[in-house]
Amino acid sequence: MVLAWWGDPQNPLEPVNTNEVNGGAVLNMIFTGLVSYDPKTSKASNAMADSITSTDQQNWTVKLKPGWKFSDGTTVTASSYVDAWNYGALVTNKQVNASFFQYVQGYNDVAPATGAPTAQTMSGLKVVDDNTFTVALSQKFSTWPQTLGYSAYYPVPKSFFTDHAAYLNKPIGNGPYEIQTWTKSQKMQLRPFTGYSGPNKPKNGGIDLKVYTDTNAAYADLQSGNLDLDNGIPNSALKTIQTDLNGRYINEPAGIIQTISFPLYQPQWSTPGAAMVRQGISMAIDRATITKVVFTNTRTPATDWTSPVLGESGGYKSGLCGSVCNYDPAKAKQLIQQGGGIPGGQLTISYNADGPHKEWVDAVCNSINNATGDTKSCVGRPVGTFADFRNQITTKQMTGAFRTGWQMDYPLIQDFLQPVYTTGASSNDSHYTSAQFDSLVSQANANPDQAAAVGQFQTAEKLLINDLPAIPLWYQNGTAGWSSRITNVALDPFSVPVYSEITVK
């Protein structure tokens, strides 16, 4: 068995109710979706889908490969997908990723902006037979098939509905692993699912995920041989990790951006001058020094809201953010003053204390304090655990700034913008809203010309420069260290270990 680092997921492991990395890592081990992403290139290809076709890029037919099973022995059918998607979209089920179904016809009936739903299922989903279903979208969406490897689109077994409590206690999927035991806040044991029909069958006897609330404790366990895989490396270890682990260390670009978001639902952050204050705060952050000193060059200063992993053809645009992302302490101080000053006189930056964040938050605050000339203008605000921290964000309890990050769900610029910044989107933590931004994203989705669509997405992205619901900080590399017991360790472009490929010596 491989003993690996883990953090408690925020929510129960329902596919449409998971939008953070700890829960996502498990879902991707116990489920296989219609498509999957190559662990080296992130390119999408059919997995459980035999074909996903359309003559007009709006009405799609999905055919499944027959014979796939869930780990409870039941068969995966077209209804496993349609029922899962309808459940996920229905507003009364309160699933955080419900908005991923917003382009399916009938979504507004099951998830109205106000009031009770007028339907229980989306009219755009139809089961044709056990291995075929159709999806009618409300508009053309040329890259829709490429999005379907994300966990929100996973199927669920019938027991998800007939005994939901049992499912939540021990989730059942159709992927390469199945959950054997799960003691919440302590450990999860995953073992190879012998009935798995996909190609990436595990090359190990299983993965044991151990929950750590202190990244330094996890790293100490790794060094002493009490942990095999650590992909929550503390910043304090980055300077010595190569020698500490005799080279058993990965540091490579990943589809991740780290940001600082603001609660625009709070009156003090929605005034006409507040956007100018946010711009000033951004210009007060010395990204180059922080990424070098704190992160030992495992981060790169961000100049847009996407990731270099996309490449220019995929939507990454170096320098798109312009001067707002450049360190200019004099201009920063001027803008903060012109905007009416930091609300309340002090900026707090909240973060989860069980992750490696204190050092960089302190460094960011020191940079802001130096620019303003006030040693108390910014302070860090630790929150005990990741789950508690995320719950404070999703229940709109934040009054100051807070750390946010985005790990791509699929390799499209659309994924860096739509789920994070469109009105009411699943990961719109700042609750930013712009009708113009929403419209441009919808137009880009409908554009069959991918190059032209990328340009439309970037036009939308430029609106974020002035509104600045979130400050781009840096692009994050994927990092991991491992023990001498295991080999074949790799990270995918999402920075998640390719668990199925790990072998025990």
From TrEMBL:
<feature type="domain" description="Solute-binding protein family 5">
    <location>
        <begin position="46"/>
        <end position="427"/>
    </location>
</feature>
<dbReference type="InterPro" id="IPR030678">
    <property type="entry name" value="Peptide/Ni-bd"/>
</dbReference>
<protein>
    <submittedName>
        <fullName>ABC transporter substrate-binding protein</fullName>
    </submittedName>
</protein>
<dbReference type="InterPro" id="IPR000914">
    <property type="entry name" value="SBP_5_dom"/>
</dbReference>
<dbReference type="InterPro" id="IPR039424">
    <property type="entry name" value="SBP_5"/>
</dbReference>
<dbReference type="Pfam" id="PF00496">
    <property type="entry name" value="SBP_bac_5"/>
</dbReference>
